[in-house]
């Protein structure tokens, strides 16, 4: 049986259909908004896994056929997920994970398949909504419905679920997920918006989320399956009251000392070893793991109590205090810009690479966006946390990089003002909390060091939260790894002095209130400005020039009707220029030519060559040409790319010439002067240059070009040739 539901939000009708397709899944829903259609399914294994975490996976499949596109590549089928798909996987996972029962350990998978899209409406919030609905109607123990929507800000007005077109001119792209009680997840990119506007947008989003959550409750009553019951496993603790009190005292003493991350870890290992000896636990036994868990739980309670009751953090900082800051620039000699930013034990190396616009990234996913000139890549090597392991790019790394990229993008110069492709890499050298925000700071400093004329300095900070069931809470500035692990919120805020440029919030509890978010934003602003002050002490403003090792780019404008001349047949002319001068050349449809290269002299020579090509040939112009063809009556000489003229046999020399072959050979370079241009733009040349320049010989008058008018009813066809889009070439 098929069941259909509708809900209107932001002027759009959301259609939900259950029971038509994918009926063997534990839960399935088809969501339709305009011409965008998503299938979302939820499946879980009946048996729990022997793990202490929730084995939840989210997969997003972007089908090329959804947009009427043929997949790229040799095999013509979808390959690994796009960056957009991976980021949407994370977006769906984050608000759902905290709402599963704590003792639920069954392998669970959410699959989101984009079946159709008009490329007008982003599908990211639909994925969250669909995942919640599929879980709610299933027998999987998930009982808190989640709503999700996007908010834009265009022309001073907040817009619910904006289109891609509206987002192009929007100062805000905000995705919010929440239950009927509280906000669960926030993700945003912004163009210097105020904290007050952000709060207003969050409240508007939550109003819509509540409507979506209430609809889901109605759907569950009508068609939902009975939920599986997860039995609570109760076991006797290994640590008795006496040992518990002693361990608690030791842990408190450790935190009174304000130890480093590594020192603290070593001391906690000693406590576990002492306890295991006292209660006679063997190494590598299940009881040893249980003991570690009990100590971790004890530690968590102690740290949280110290923060809430005493206002004392693990490293003895105040709640709004930032760790020590250090930064430097120009740390690597041959890169185009570099920096090291350190906050506490977290350290990030930032580098920037500049390239011609031909190096911009091409995008192939379900979005109107097809390319971008700025990329930020984040790397988290195992050694950054003192471990060994595989070097690979995980979903987490892609997510952190995307967040930092979003934070920096608003302050970058436009492509018109700065004709470069830019790649920033953040390599985390050591990690103890908030590496993505350290990447923002390191990225900005490296861009400034590289001479990129950014509009403002941007910094990022991570805020934390300790929230008790009774409602008592503490907001923490610049959380370290332990506070992130033991706390209830990771709220990252990036921005300049003018406003916020990026947000990301993840929580471990069942939502936070707007009041908490308001306080966190205000506290984050104070910290952000303090970090900006520090960064500008290191480097007050971008360097005036790019590195001597960076490519230089110069733009010139040529008439659009001359583009074909610069490109040449099959790209021959432009390839020749690129090869000769070791430069890159990009030509836009409007006639903008960007010439890039490491050496300014080579760029200047390439520009001179291009200008000579597009220059109109005039009578009296002198050229060093090359003989390209011999005829009985004369020789054809190439004077410019695509431009040949005829030297008549009588104009080869002042003396009589019996045959052209006796005077010239193909490939020979000759000096010639333009003698005449006829009405068909045919060029007559002469090798008797000195006599024409001296006035001894007179130039022939060029006749104006004639235009033939077609007669009404004639059989003459109007043949129009369209110029192909100029290719982008580089050496």
Structural class determined from secondary elements: alpha+beta
What's the gyration radius in Å? 34 Å
What is the distance, rounded to the nearest whole angstrom, between the alpha carbons of the first and last residues? 62 Å
> Which CATH architecture of the largest domain would you pick?
2-Layer Sandwich
Number of helices: 16
Number of domains: 5
- The average pLDDT score comes to 89
Sequence-ordered SSE layout with sheet pairings:
Blueprint (H helix, E strand, L loop, with lengths): L2 E7 L2 E7 L8 E7 L2 E13 L7 E7 L20 H14 L9 E11 L7 H14 L9 E8 L2 E4 L3 H5 L3 E7 L4 E11 L1 H29 L17 H16 L4 H18 L7 H25 L14 E5 L7 E7 L2 E10 L5 E2 L8 E2 L1 E6 L15 H14 L12 E10 L4 H15 L9 E9 L5 E5 L3 H6 L2 E7 L4 E8 L6 H25 L13 E6 L5 H5 L4 H10 L2 E4 L4 E6 L2 H15 L7 E10 L2 E7 L2 E6 L11 H4 L5 E9 L5 E4 L2 H6 L34 E2 L1
Helix pairs in contact: 1-2, 1-8, 2-4, 4-11, 5-6, 5-7, 8-9, 13-14
Brief account:
This protein has 731 residues and is α+β, with helices and mostly antiparallel strands. It has 16 helices and 30 strands. A hairpin with a 5-residue loop joins strand 28 and strand 29 (683-686).
Which short descriptors sum up this protein?
731 residues, Ribosomal Protein S5, domain 2, alpha+beta, disordered C terminus, 5 domains, elongated, 16 helices
Write a structural description.
- This protein is of the alpha+beta class and 731 residues long.
- It folds into five domains: 3-223, Ribosomal Protein S5, domain 2 (2-Layer Sandwich), CATH 3.30.230; 241-310, no CATH class; 325-465 and 517-538, Ribosomal Protein S5, domain 2, CATH 3.30.230; 552-614, Ribosomal Protein S8, Chain: A, domain 1, CATH 3.30.1370.10; 622-694, OB fold (Dihydrolipoamide Acetyltransferase, E2P) (Beta Barrel), CATH 2.40.50.
- Helices cover 30% and strands 28% of the residues.
- The chain has an eight-stranded antiparallel beta sheet with strand order 8-7-9-10-21-20-18-19, sandwiched between helices.
- Helix 5 (241-256) packs across helix 7.
- The two termini are 62 Å apart.
- 38% of the residues are buried.
């Amino acid at each position: 049986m098929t069941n259909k539901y509708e809900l209107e939000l932001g002027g759009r009708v959301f259609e939900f259909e259950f029971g038509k397709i994918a009926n063997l899944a534990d839960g399935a829903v088809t969501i339709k908004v305009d011409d965008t259609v998503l299938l979302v399914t939820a499946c879980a294994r009946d048996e729990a896994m022997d793990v202490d975490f929730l084995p939840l996976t989210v997969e997003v499949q972007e089908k090329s056929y959804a947009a009427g596109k043929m997949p790229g590549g040799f095999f013509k089928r979808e390959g690994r997920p796009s960056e957009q798909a991976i980021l949407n996987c994370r977006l769906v996972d984050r608000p759902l994970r905290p709402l599963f029962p704590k003792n639920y350990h069954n392998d669970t998978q959410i699959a989101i398949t984009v079946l159709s899209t008009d490329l007008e409406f982003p599908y990211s919030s639909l994925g969250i909504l669909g995942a919640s609905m599929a879980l709610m109607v299933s027998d999987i123990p998930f009982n808190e419905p989640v709503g999700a929507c996007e908010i834009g800000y265009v022309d001073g007005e907040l817009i619910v679920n904006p289109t891609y077109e509206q987002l192009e001119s929007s100062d805000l792209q905000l995705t919010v997920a929440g239950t009927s009680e509280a906000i669960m997840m926030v993700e945003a990119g912004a163009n210097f918006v105020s904290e007050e506007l952000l709060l207003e947008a969050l409240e508007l989003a939550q109003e819509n989320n509540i409507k979506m959550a209430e609809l889901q409750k109605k759907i569950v009553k009508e068609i939902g399956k009975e939920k599986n019951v997860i039995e609570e496993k109760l076991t006797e603790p290994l640590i008795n009251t006496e040992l518990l009190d002693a361990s608690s005292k030791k842990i408190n003493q450790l935190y009174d000392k304000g130890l480093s991350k590594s020192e603290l870890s070593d001391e906690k290992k000693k406590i576990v070893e002492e306890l295991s000896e006292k209660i006679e636990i063997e190494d590598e036994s299940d009881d040893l793991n249980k003991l570690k868990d009990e100590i971790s739980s004890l530690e968590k309670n102690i740290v949280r109590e110290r923060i809430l009751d005493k206002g004392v953090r693990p490293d003895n900082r105040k709640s709004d205090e930032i760790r020590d800051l250090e930064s430097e620039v120009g740390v690597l000699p041959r890169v185009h810009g570099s920096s090291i930013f350190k906050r506490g034990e977290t350290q990030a190396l930032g580098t920037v690479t500049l390239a011609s616009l031909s190096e911009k990234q091409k995008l192939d996913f379900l979005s109107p966006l097809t390319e971008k000139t700025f990329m930020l890549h984040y790397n988290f090597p195992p050694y950054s946390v003192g471990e060994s392991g595989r070097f690979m790019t995980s979903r987490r790394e892609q997510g952190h990089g995307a967040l930092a990229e979003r934070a920096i993008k608003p302050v970058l110069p436009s492509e018109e003002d700065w004709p470069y492709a830019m790649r920033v890499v953040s390599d985390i050298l050591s990690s103890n909390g908030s590496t993505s925000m350290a990447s923002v700071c390191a990225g900005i400093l490296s861009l400034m060091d590289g001479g990129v004329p950014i509009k403002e300095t941007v910094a990022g900070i991570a805020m934390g939260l300790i929230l008790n069931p009774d409602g008592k809470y503490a907001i923490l500035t610049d959380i370290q790894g332990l506070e992130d692990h033991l706390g209830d919120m990771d709220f990252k805020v990036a921005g300049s002095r003018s406003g916020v440029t990026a947000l990301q919030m993840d929580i471990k509890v069942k939502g936070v209130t707007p009041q908490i978010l308001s306080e966190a934003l205000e506290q984050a602003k104070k910290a952000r400005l303090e970090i900006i002050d520090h960064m500008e002490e290191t480097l007050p403003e971008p360097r005036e020039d790019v590195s001597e090792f960076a490519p230089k780019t110069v733009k010139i404008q040529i008439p659009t009707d001359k583009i074909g001349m610069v490109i040449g047949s099959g790209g021959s002319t432009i390839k020749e220029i690129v090869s000769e001068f070791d430069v890159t050349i990009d030509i836009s449809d409007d006639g903008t030519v960007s010439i890039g290269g490491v050496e300014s002299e080579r760029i200047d020579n390439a520009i001179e060559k291009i200008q000579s090509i597009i220059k109109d040939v005039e009578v009296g112009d002198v050229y060093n040409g090359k003989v390209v063809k011999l005829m009985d009556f004369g020789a054809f000489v190439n004077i410019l790319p695509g431009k040949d003229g005829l030297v008549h046999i009588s104009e080869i020399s002042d003396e009589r010439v019996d045959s052209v072959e006796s005077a010239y050979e193909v490939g020979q370079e000759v000096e010639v002067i333009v003698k005449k241009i006829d009405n068909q733009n045919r060029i007559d040349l002469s090798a008797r240059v000195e006599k024409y320049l001296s006035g001894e010989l007179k130039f022939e008058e060029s006749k104006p070009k004639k235009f033939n008018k077609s007669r009404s009813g004639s059989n003459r066809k109007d043949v129009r040739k369209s110029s192909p889009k100029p290719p982008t070439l580089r050496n």
